[in-house]
Each structure stands twice: as structure tokens, then as C-alpha cells.
Amino acid sequence: NAVWCSSSRGVHSSPSSSQQEQQQQQQRILPRDALAGQPTHFTHPNVLGLDELAPSLHISEFQARRRNLARLMPPGSIAIIPAASLAYVTGVIPYPYRQDADFLYLTGLQQQSVAILQTDGSAGYSYQLYVPSPDAEKERWDGAWVGQQAAQQVFKADEVYSIHELPARVQQLATSANAVLFDFDRHNSYQFQALRQSLHDAIGRGKTMPLKPHMHRYRRV
């Protein structure tokens, strides 16, 4: 399946430009899994430069932020950073979405998902994203959200999983980790209940600690 992505570039109708027009149209058609779910250079070239996730913020800036946070984490630990959840005015009518500041600072994503940083005991780390699976019915009303291909190619995740895999993966990662950094006071974060339940054993073993002190220490630097 392919989805049409609008572009702000003008379309010329003169016969001499018909081939160029056809090429532009083909370039604006993306498979569902390649959709970023938010403005990119591909959809809004007049606003975002190549590999920018926000005006004047290149992807390398977000990569540097994650790398610097990983350096502050205990060796062999994981940090779990969930996005904000939707808040509803009433029933199924949501408030305008406001992303969690720390999640946005590290990922550039303006959508619901969960990020995990895993250090390897030295200077290295991996960046995992857990994204919602495609849902044609919901996307009729809300628009398509980030696909697994875009999570890697646009947001530069090292590994991408469906959000349905999150509980089992978190249990597995927490079992082998030396420490788990997670803020249990963010009750309204995305997938909070699933994350808290998955970390039950890690809590009992005293392996959990808050992420905020590391995160805010880094952001003050």
C-alpha cells in the first residue's frame, strides 16, 4: 500500500515539464511503512532542511543528545523514555497533543512511542524505538503515524519494534541490565501501566532508579 504525501512545491502544467511533474509525483508517494507521521524535509522542504527533525535542528543534534545521556548512565544499564499519552476533553475528543519534553529532546518525535537506550558497558549504546502498529481505521481519522522503516531511516533508531512487543522486551532487557532508569512518577506517560508491570521483578531486585536526575543534569550542561 502507498500513501500520498503532500508537498508545498508548485506543479507546472506546461508540456515541457510533464516528465519532471511525473517524477515529482512519484517521489511524493511513499509506502505506509516509510511514513514519518510528522513533517519532514520530504513533505515540507520549505520548512525543514535535509535531515532536520525541527527547524534548524539536524538529526545529528538528537544523536549527540542521546550519546551524551548514555555517557551519564551506569555501565550496562537501560533508560526507558516514554512519550506523552493523549489527554481527552471528553469521550473520544482529545486535547491537542503535547509531547513529553524529555522524549522530544532525545528523539525529535512528536508522536506516541517508547524509546530505550541501552549501554553496553563501555562507551557504546543502542537506541530502540517501539512504535504503534498500522491501524487503517484509526488512521482514517488521525492520519498515519511513524512506520518502522521511517523510525530507522528518518529518526535513526538502531532497532525498531512494534509497541505490542514492549512488555516482553522490557522484561528481557531489565533482567540482563545492571540498572534500569525509569521515572515511575510519570503516571500519564504512554504505556505507563505496561512498563510498570514489566519492571515488577526489577523493582523487587532494587535495580530501578529515576531517570530525571541524569536527564536534567545533562540538560543543564
What do you see in this structure?
A hairpin with a 5-residue loop joins strand 8 (114-119) and strand 9 (125-131). Residues 1-15 have low confidence and may be disordered. Helix 6 (166-176) packs parallel to helix 7 (192-198). The protein has nine helices and twelve strands. It is an alpha/beta fold and 221 residues long. The strands form four sheets. It has a six-stranded mixed sheet with strand order 10-9-8-5-11-12, with helices on both faces. A two-stranded antiparallel sheet has the order 1-2. It is globular. It has helices spanning 18-27, 59-72, 101-107, 136-142, 148-153, 166-176, 192-198, 200-204, 212-220; strands at 2-4, 29-31, 52-54, 57-58, 77-82, 88-90, 93-94, 114-119, 125-131, 159-162, 179-181, 208-209. 34% of the residues lie in helices and 20% in strands.
Brief synopsis:
This protein has 221 residues and is an alpha/beta fold.
Write the layout of secondary structure elements.
Elements: E1 2-4, H1 18-27, E2 29-31, E3 52-54, E4 57-58, H2 59-72, E5 77-82, E6 88-90, E7 93-94, H3 101-107, E8 114-119, E9 125-131, H4 136-142, H5 148-153, E10 159-162, H6 166-176, E11 179-181, H7 192-198, H8 200-204, E12 208-209, H9 212-220
Parallel strand pairs: 5-11, 9-10, 11-12
Antiparallel strand pairs: 1-2, 3-4, 5-8, 6-7, 8-9
